[in-house]
């Protein structure tokens, strides 16, 4: 686990790819006096390390804010205390498959949430999952959840989406683009630190998803990525997405 301080009371605890996984994981850690909020809970082994680090600093984990409830973000909750506040989309129940010891408190899309110096606001972005949200932090950072994903080294990953959710994912990427964020932080992969990089990352995913959708899932890999400027790490998600649909 590597710890980066982004600014006062705001940290990134990051994990490289583990064996058998195509991508690493980011915990974003917000501190308010002795209380700590983490964004996402990762896998159990990762959450244990993060919690141990928090305890070693004589701090208390009080909140976990979920970008969405897929297993690689939620499973860590199982090893965290049952009395912490877990915040997430009101749609969380459509995605969560794991028994967790905590109760989920739905976030308010109109009112946001204040945690110490951090003003958090949320936007629903269904597609990758029914409960995906964007998290705005002080109008400076935008956590995209898995709307954008990359490997630990920054190499682009394809969007993961089920075929019947592609149109929703496209709309959600358009919402992300319309926010014109300065810095985008991700669940998987390094932060995107300027508008050009952010826009390109969004456009690349949009052009891929539109190519697949417009061809009704029948396009080749080359056709799917013909307008993308990036080189994707692999085409595994394309194969899964079009399984049974390709000619
Ligand atoms: Fe993920």
Explained architecture:
The structure is a single chain. With about 250 residues, the protein is of the alpha/beta class. It has a single domain, classed as Metallo-beta-lactamase, Chain A (4-Layer Sandwich). Helix content is about 25%, strand content about 25%. The protein is built from six helices and 14 strands. The protein has a seven-stranded mixed beta sheet, with helices on one face. A five-stranded mixed beta sheet has the order 8-9-10-11-14, with no helix packed on it. It has a two-stranded antiparallel ribbon with strand order 12-13. Strand 12 and strand 13 form a beta hairpin. Helix 3 packs antiparallel against helix 4. The radius of gyration is 18 Å and the shape is globular. About 40% of the residues are buried. The mean pLDDT is about 95. Fe (ii) ion (FE2) binds next to helix 2.
The first-level CATH class name: Alpha Beta
Q: Which fold name corresponds to the CATH topology? A: Metallo-beta-lactamase, Chain A
Quaternary assembly: single chain
Q: Output the strand order for the largest sheet.
A: 1-2-3-4-5-6-7
Which cofactor or ligand species appear?
Answer: fe (ii) ion
- Measured between the Cα atoms of the first and last residue, the distance is 44 Å
Number of H- or I-type helical stretches: 6
User: How many β strands by DSSP?
Assistant: 14
Mean pLDDT: 95
The shape, in one word, is: globular
Rounded Rg: 18 Å
The CATH architecture can be named as 4-Layer Sandwich
Q: What helical percentage do the residues reach?
A: 10-25%
Largest sheet: 7 strands, mixed
């Amino acid at each position: 686990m590597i710890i980066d301080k982004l600014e006062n009371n705001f940290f990134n605890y990051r994990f490289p790819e583990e064996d058998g996984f195509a991508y690493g994981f980011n915990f974003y850690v917000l501190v308010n006096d002795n209380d700590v909020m983490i964004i996402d809970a990762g896998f159990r082994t990762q959450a244990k390390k993060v919690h141990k680090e928090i305890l070693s600093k004589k701090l208390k984990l009080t909140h976990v804010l979920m970008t969405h409830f897929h297993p690689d973000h939620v499973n860590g909750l199982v090893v965290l205390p049952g009395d912490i506040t877990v915040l997430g989309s009101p749609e969380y129940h459509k995605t969560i498959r794991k028994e967790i010891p905590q109760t989920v408190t739905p976030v308010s899309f109109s009112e946001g949430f204040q945690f110490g110096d951090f003003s958090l606001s949320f936007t629903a972005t269904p597609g990758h999952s029914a409960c995906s949200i964007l998290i705005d932090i002080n109008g400076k950072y935008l956590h995209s959840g898995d709307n954008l994903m990359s490997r630990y080294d920054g190499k682009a990953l394809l969007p993961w989406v089920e075929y019947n959710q592609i149109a929703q994912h496209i709309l959600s990427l358009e919402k992300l683009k319309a926010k014109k964020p300065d810095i985008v932080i991700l669940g998987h992969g390094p932060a995107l630190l300027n508008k050009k990089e952010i826009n390109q990352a969004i456009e690349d995913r949009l052009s891929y998803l539109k190519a697949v959708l417009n061809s009704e899932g029948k396009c080749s890999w080359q056709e799917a990525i013909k307008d993308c400027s990036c080189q994707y790490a692999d085409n595994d998600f394309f194969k899964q997405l079009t399984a049974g649909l390709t000619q």
